[in-house]
Write a structure and sequence with these properties.
- The complex is a heterodimer of chains A (93) and B (289).
- Chain A is α+β, with helices and mostly antiparallel strands and 93 residues long.
- Chain A has one domain.
- Chain A contains three helices and five strands; from the N terminus they run ββββαααβ.
- In chain A, strands 2-3-4 form a three-stranded antiparallel beta sheet, with no helix packed on it. Chain A has a two-stranded antiparallel ribbon with strand order 1-5.
- In chain A, α2 packs across α3.
- Chain A is globular, with a radius of gyration of 13 Å.
- The mean pLDDT of chain A is 90.
- By secondary structure, chain B is of the alpha+beta class.
- Chain B has two domains: 96 residues, no CATH class; 184 residues, Rossmann fold.
- Chain B has nine helices and 16 strands.
- In chain B, a hairpin with a 6-residue loop joins β9 and β10.
- In chain B, α3 packs parallel to α4 and α6 crosses α8.
- The longest helix of chain B is centred in the N-terminal third of the chain and has 16 residues.
- Classes of the chains: A alpha+beta (93), B alpha+beta (289).
- At the A-B interface, β2 and β3 of A face α6 and α8 of B.
Chain lengths: 93, 289
Amino acid sequence: MGVTYRAEAPDQIVIEHLGAIDLLYHHRSGATHLVAAPMPQILEALGDGPATVADLIGRLAAQFDFDAAEDMASLLEQRLAELAALGLVRVDG
Amino acid sequence: MRHEIGLGIGPATFRIGSAWRAPLDALARLYAAYPPVDLSRRVPDFTVRLQPTRPWRRLIRPSIFIAGDHWLPEAAPMALEHGLLAAEMGMNLQMALGWRRHVLLHASSVERDGKAIIITGESGSGKSTLAAMLGERGWRLMGDEFALLDPVSGAVFPFPRLISLKNQAIDIATAGIASERLGPLMAATAKGDIRHLVPRADAIARMKEPATPALLLFPQYGPAADRRPVDPGEAFVRLTQASTNYVALGEAGFRALTRFVTQVPAVALDYPDSATVFAAIDDLWSRIG
């Protein structure tokens, strides 16, 4: 408990949707990222404010059907760690 | 420098200085139809210097080192008889490393009715040869090496330097062309045999005239004819790889390239011979309104 994820400020990111992938330009790093689902969805859900993994699962479940057999918390933590490594998400706590 | 010449190609101007006269004489002959640049009245965008590797090497076994505003430390010196190639490589290097007014795409381009085909691909894909041949077949050659994408308008600007033909492409692309439009055959350079071709007069006269990109081609010379659409995401990745200044341009480059790939259809073309690829291009062009 206690780990909170925070999205990069919206004015730092420019997103272009190109079919199956999204292109994302990050002002702070000057880097361009190609991201596929579920990355854009996670970033969008975090856009509603800082969240724990449990909060995020709640936000995403409101929009998407999950496969009940999957360990959503573990999957999300992995994706959030990847987004954090790119500098697109910050980890507090 | 002992000798120098001013050259204007598309939007860029160059000062080429040289320790030797011969490379500049060759440049002056081949660039005779280009508008002159008076170096006493304006500061050029870039300077290229062809200088001896050591002071005494100007006369004894002359060996050229390319220098200028931007340079690559590992560039190998070149023989004086390849001086024209050294000058061309020096100009390309300045553009690739120093140009900031456009997104610089390592691509050839040709224009018809105000619309352009952009042709990109690895070295050996045939982009230079295709552009050279299309330029003799009713298209306006805009450039065989760099296409300049304007971040503001989305238009492509020409950079019609001398066309650099290599190895087997030399005989194919120069068939029937008057010798006045051909540079010397430079055999066994680091890039193989090289011969330069002067673009047609209309390509030079209209070298400041942009066009709207209408088709992006990824040709690949190979055994079987094939054609497949390239989705915008793949086109974006390949164009960023083909651009030397994408990262330097930041968000302007990002917006220019995303606009380009969402508006311009992209096709990968595998072709075994020139007749096949020209038929494919004619067919693709006929579908573009």
